[in-house]
Structures are given as C-alpha cells and as structure tokens.
Write a sequence for this structure.
C-alpha cells in the first residue's frame, strides 16, 4: 500500500517537474529572471500562433455559413449592403501585399494585437445574444464560444511574441481601445443584423490576423526568402 | 388582314395606320422610318413618307414603287434589324489568381444593333468616389483587369458595368466583391512523370511546379495540391474513374505498385488558403512497362520453396532414422506418474496393492450424524438483514449435544459463504479471495467467551480465505462487497494467511447441502459469530493493523462489538 502511494507521488513529482522545466509561454516570467525554465523557441511560438489563427479563421468561416443558413431558415432577408457593414478601425490596416511587406515587424505585431483585443468583447456579446435566439443551431453556439476562448489564448500568445521579438513589456501602441457601446435593442431585426455584422466582420479580421502572422513567421524564420520587394 | 409573307407589300394608308397604331417606332439603317412591332411578333415595317403616299396620286404611284421596294415585312422573329438601346450586361465572375490582382468578366446584353461600348466602374467600400477599370485588354474581351496597384484586399469593391450606344445606356446589376473570397489560382505547371524501377517496389513519380504567379514562399498564401490519376483503357472498355490523392504542399508525389503495362493519365490542381480549386493541369501520360520484375520474383519464390521442401524432407528422414536427432527434434513426452501407483502392479492386476499407496489414513471420513448443528456461513452481498428463515433453520437443526448457551443463533447479517460451485472447495478458495479481515476482534471475543473460538477473517487483499471450523475443518471462501457479520456467541475461525500451509485437513464430507451456485451448507457444531457490516473499501487499504484487517471495517466492528457485548 505504502509502496504504491510513494510510487504515485514520485511519478507525479517527476511529471510536474518536467512540466516546470519545459514551461509554457503564458507562464514564462520576464526574460531577465527566466533562466532556463522558459525555453520555447521563437519558431515554435510563431508556429503555434499561426495554427491558432488559421483554426480561428476556419471556424469563423463556418460560423458565418451557419449564420447564413439560420437566416435563411428564419426566412429573413437581411440584405445588408456588405460594403458598409464593418466599421473602420482606428488604426489603418494595410490593404495589399506590397503594403504589408513594407511595414515593420513591430507594426505587424501591434496590428495583430489591436485586432485581437478589439474582437474579444463583441464576440462575447454575440454569444450571449445568440443564446436568446429561438432556434439557433447549437453548432453555431459552440463554434462561437470556441472562437472566444481561442482568441484569448491568441492574445496571450501575441503578447509573448511581442516580448520576445520586440523586447517590450507588452506595451500597447495607440490610445485606449474604443469600447463600442453596449448594443441593446428590442428590435429583433436590429439585433440579428448586429450579430451578423459581428460574425461577418470578424471573419474578415481573422483572415487578416492569419495573413499577418504567416508573413511575420516567414520573416522571422527564413529571412532570405521572405525579403521585401 | 395583313399579308404576312416576307417581302414588299402594298398597303393602304389606313391599313398602315392601323398597323402602326400603338407601335413603337425606331429607326433602322435601311429606311428612314421603321416600325418595330415589338416583342410578340417581331415584325418590322419600313415606311417612308406616309404623307407623300397620300397627297399626290401620280407621284404616289412613283413613290409607291419606291416605297414598296422599301416596305418590308420582316420576319416574325427578327429583332436585330432594329436598333434600340443596349440590353443589360451581366457580370459573370471575378477571380484573383494570387490574391494580389483580380479580373472581372461580364457578358454583354443585346447590343440593340448599334456599336456598343462597355465601361466598368467601381467604388471601394464606404467611399463614394467612382473609378474606372484600369485595364480592359489584358484579360481579353469583356473583361477588366485590376493590377497590383489597384487591388486592395479586405475591402469590398462595388462593381458595375455600363453598356452604352447611340441610343442609350444600360447598367448591369452591381456586384460586391472582396478579393479574399475570389481566389482561384492557375493550375500547376510542368507536370512530368518518371517511372522508377526499384527492386521490390516500383513506382512512378509525379512532379510539378507551382503556378508561376503565386507567391508561396513568403507566407502570403499557403498552397495545397491534389493529384488525380486514372488508367487509360484502350478499346471498348469504359474508362476507369479518377483516383484523387491529396499532396499537401509538396511538389512531388509517388504512386506505388502501378499496374504493369497500363497507361496512366495524371493531373494536378492546387488551391490557395481556403479558396477555390484551380482547374486541372493538362494531362500527363506515362506507360508502365510490362514484366517489371516478375520473373525475378518468380525465380526467387521457386528457389525458396524448393529449398524449404528439401530441408523438411531431410529433417524428416533424419528424425525417423537417427534416434538422437529424433530425441533432439521431438523430445519424448514424460508420462504421468502417480506416486504410489506402480504401472507394473497395474499390469499384474491386483487392485488392493495398487491403491494401497493412494489411501491416506483417515480419508474419506464417514458422514457425520445428522443431528449436528448446521453451520450456516453466509456472507451476503447486500446490506439487508438475513431473514429469519435461516435463524429458524439453524435452531431446528440444533443438536442435543450442544450447550445452549454456547449455541448462538445466527441472527441477522450472518455470513454467507459464496462459492462458485460446490465441488472442489479448496481450489475455489484459492481463486476467490475478497474479504475483509476482522480477526483480532474475533479472537478477543472468543477469549471472552472462553471457548475455543474461531475467528472469521475476511481478507480483502487477495489472499485466499479459508473459513475453517475447528471441528469441521471446512474451508470456504467469501465474497465481500458488503460482508456483514453479526456478533454471535461463537465465531468461525477463518485462516487468512496465504503463505501458511493449510493446517487443518479439508473435510469435504461436511458439505451437507449445496443450495445454489454459491451457497454451501456446512454441518458443524459451532455456530458462526456474525459481525456487523464490514465495508470492502479498497481505498482505505492503506492502513493495516497487525497486517491483518482493514481499518474501516475494523472500526465498525469495534463499535458494534462494544454496543452489543
């Protein structure tokens, strides 16, 4: 009996200590005091961030399709002029590959961070709102919730990347984020329209995040091939 | 009323007026006035100078001839002869091959018979400024090519095509386009096939190049390929269907074990990010040679088989003939020997001598008298208390040769001994070993009672449990999910120790009855001491007091004893 417990404790100890050795990007203390405990390479961090962003984009695409189907089943013809749906961000985002390739790593990272932080709250609101719908498909709800959680871990990851690549302590560029006013409307159509625009515009921004991260990764890992031109 | 044949007809003004009534007039190149009857019949009439016709009869005839040559009753369905403002063009599709430029194509509507020019205008998202297409020619007719400078991603373009001719304009429906949604690359290039003949696994290799305009290196787009192939069947057979394989990001792909002698057709296509698949590349062909390495294989197989046969034959012959080899290959099986049994004696046929060695003194015992008290060991699986049937059963079987104060009734919660089959108790005991031990407690009470007591040990740890009765020398095992033991006057001593040899002989004649699959009725003079419920709690196995019993059950029994004694 005692032997078994002792063995279990030993195994647990070994496992925990291993975990302590490898560490996790979120738990990594400051670079100065880190020493040997935080040894995830930049390449791996970037790889994980890219995977996160890729998955988030794919799931957001599925969310949008599910929402479209739901609208059709509701019989609603939203006819939203797509061109006017997404509010322009305070920070201008580059619009073409050439433009993006000319901006610095610092700018890319900060843009990503701004985008990520912008969408955390609206998605939570949409999740709450979706739960009030009469017959929202559960797949849509689970996906939306998944996106919210993954977005927060992406935010953590981007902060770590900023620390590692730029050496900053998570300095935020620009002023305080604009908090969009809590949208409360008793009109069902307005609520649906708002939710749809969140999902639609988020999908677009998720694509941006993914593209920026991929470019950043290429630049950091393989400097020769990914040069500006 | 009208002569509906095509050609020149003479009509009176009244008829003409009637015909012209409510008709739309348009001009055609061949006459100065043309009436288009319109959509239903499509006929058109070319009229000149109706007034001339009427005013001067003499001239009328001259004019009439002229006019007549010019009056047409056109075919019923011809529209084209007549001119109109253009029909609406329609934007058919927009595509971006590499997410940096894009092209839109449209389909013209009717031209209305006049030379029509097309212009494409666009607006960017949430801005009102209108721009015109930067390049109408690069992508062919009826197209508009947006180069890198004019392409922005992640914003919506609102595009309209306008067709205009001398008579008017027509606007197409507006289309909203975001470059990220319309990505469809060009097909991969330079697909070539090579057949590689390796020893045992021939294969052919498909290689290709990415489309030249896609920037796959900088991470701007992530490209994925798909290969498909099929065997080309010459002759009348139907073509086999395509087999598709996903090839990830690599630029080559191997097809193993192709059919010898077959003609393969291979195509590759690609996709950027989550966009649309490109068209399939032009087919590449390869012919697999026959008889790849079959002959080689066959020879090998034959050689190996022959060798094996020869080897087996040799071994067999040797085995049969040479004794040492035989012993080596087929060692003799030891014959069973029963100690005390001599096969020679068997042959001689004297039975007493044969079996003399087998008989141990005192075995088998004659069945005991039936007035012995029945010992009823019950270890129940459930908490409920035993019914009084058992109690009554026991009491009725009490023999006279027992002192009544010693004879304890088996009250509730008596121990039920579970056995899987009543036949061979000893083996069963060693197999089924779950019980809890409460030995010390029992010994204490037994000391109190002053009788040679027997303790019931139920050990949950896995050692065989022997419920042994001093007198009966029975062994029985117990199952204990919830072994309930009631305090009674006398206890049943159950030896727990796995290592110890059985100190008492088995007495199978004590089994007086087998009630069911797992209940044995043993005859004994000493009743069982029941104990309160003992929980077989495996998690509390950590503590062991005296190495014999479990704390939880022990505590419970302690309390029960203290309450009852």
């Amino acid at each position: 009996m005692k032997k078994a417990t002792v063995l279990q404790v030993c195994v647990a100890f070994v496992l925990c200590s291993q975990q302590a050795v490898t560490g996790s990007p979120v738990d990594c203390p400051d670079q100065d005091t880190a020493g040997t405990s935080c040894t995830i390479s930049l390449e791996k961090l970037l790889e994980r961030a890219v995977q996160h962003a890729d998955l988030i984009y794919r799931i957001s695409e599925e969310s949008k399709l599910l929402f479209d189907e739901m609208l059709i089943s509701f019989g609603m013809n939203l006819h939203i002029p797509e061109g006017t749906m997404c509010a322009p961000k305070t920070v201008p985002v580059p619009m073409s590959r050439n433009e993006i390739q000319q901006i610095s790593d610092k700018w890319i990272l900060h843009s990503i961070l701004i985008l990520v932080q912008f969408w955390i709250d609206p998605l939570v609101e949409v999740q709450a709102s979706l739960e009030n719908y009469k017959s929202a498909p559960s797949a849509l709800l689970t996906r939306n919730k998944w996106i919210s959680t993954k977005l927060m871990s992406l935010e953590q990851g981007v902060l770590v990347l900023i620390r590692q690549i730029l050496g900053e302590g998570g300095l935020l560029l620009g002023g305080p984020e604009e908090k969009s006013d809590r949208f409360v409307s008793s009109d069902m159509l307005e609520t649906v329209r708002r939710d749809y625009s969140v999902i639609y515009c988020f999908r677009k921004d998720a694509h941006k995040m993914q593209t920026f991260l991929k470019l950043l990764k290429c630049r950091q890992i393989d400097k020769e091939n990914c040069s500006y031109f | 009323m009208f002569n509906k044949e095509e050609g020149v007809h003479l009509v009176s003004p009244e008829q003409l007026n009637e015909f012209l009534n409510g008709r739309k007039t348009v001009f055609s190149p061949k006459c100065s006035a043309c009436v288009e009857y319109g959509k239903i019949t499509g006929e058109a009439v070319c009229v000149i100078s109706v007034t001339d016709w009427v005013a001067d009869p003499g001239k009328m005839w001259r004019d009439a001839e002229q006019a007549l040559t010019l009056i047409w009753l056109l075919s019923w369905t011809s529209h084209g002869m007549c001119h109109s403002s253009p029909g609406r063009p329609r934007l058919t599709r927009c595509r971006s091959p590499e997410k940096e430029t894009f092209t839109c194509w449209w389909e013209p509507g009717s031209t209305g018979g006049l030379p029509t020019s097309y212009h494409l205008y666009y607006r960017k998202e949430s801005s009102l400024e209108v721009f015109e297409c930067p390049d109408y020619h690069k992508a062919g007719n009826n197209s508009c090519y947006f180069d890198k400078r004019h392409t922005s991603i992640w914003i919506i373009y609102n595009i309209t095509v306008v067709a205009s001719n001398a008579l008017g304009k027509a606007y197409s429906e507006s289309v909203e386009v975001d470059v990220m949604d319309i990505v469809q690359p060009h097909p991969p290039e330079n697909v070539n096939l090579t057949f590689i003949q390796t020893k045992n696994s021939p294969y052919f290799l498909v290689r290709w190049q990415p489309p030249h305009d896609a920037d796959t290196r900088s991470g701007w787009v992530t490209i994925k390929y798909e290969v498909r192939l099929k065997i080309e069947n010459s002759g009348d057979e139907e073509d086999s269907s395509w087999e598709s394989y996903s090839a990830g990001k690599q630029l080559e792909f191997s097809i193993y074990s192709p059919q010898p002698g077959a003609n393969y057709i291979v195509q590759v296509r690609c996709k950027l990010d989550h966009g649309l698949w490109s068209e399939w590349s032009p087919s590449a062909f390869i012919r697999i040679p026959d008889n790849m390495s079959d002959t080689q294989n066959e020879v090998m197989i034959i050689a190996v088989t022959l060798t094996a046969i020869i080897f087996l034959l040799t071994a067999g012959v040797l085995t049969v003939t040479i004794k040492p080899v035989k012993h080596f290959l087929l060692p003799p099986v030891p014959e069973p020997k029963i100690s005390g049994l001599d096969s020679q004696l068997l042959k001689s046929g004297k039975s007493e001598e044969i079996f003399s060695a087998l008989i141990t003194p005192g075995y088998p015992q004659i069945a005991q008298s039936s007035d012995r008290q029945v010992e009823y060991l019950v270890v129940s699986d459930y908490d409920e208390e035993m019914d009084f049937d058992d109690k009554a059963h026991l009491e009725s079987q009490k023999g006279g040769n027992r002192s009544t104060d010693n004879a304890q009734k088996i009250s509730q919660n008596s121990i039920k001994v579970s056995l899987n089959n009543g036949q061979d108790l000893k083996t069963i005991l060693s197999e089924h070993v779950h019980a809890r031990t409460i030995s010390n407690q029992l010994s204490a009470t037994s000391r109190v009672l002053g009788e040679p007591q027997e303790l019931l040990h139920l050990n949950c740890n896995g050692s065989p449990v022997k419920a042994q009765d001093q007198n009966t020398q029975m062994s029985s095992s117990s199952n204990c999910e919830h072994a309930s033991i009631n305090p009674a006057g006398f206890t049943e001593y159950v030896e727990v120790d796995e290592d110890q040899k059985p100190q008492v002989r088995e007495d199978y004649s004590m089994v007086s009855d087998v009630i069911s699959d797992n209940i044995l009725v043993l005859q004994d003079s000493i009743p069982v001491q029941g104990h309160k419920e003992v929980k077989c709690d495996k998690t509390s196995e950590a503590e062991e007091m005296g190495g014999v019993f479990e704390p939880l059950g022990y505590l419970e029994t302690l309390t029960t004893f203290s309450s009852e004694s």
About this structure: The interface with chain A takes residues 99-100, 123, 125-126, 148, 151-156, 158, 176, 178, 180, 215, 217-220, 222, 274, 541-544 of chain B (CB under 8 Å).
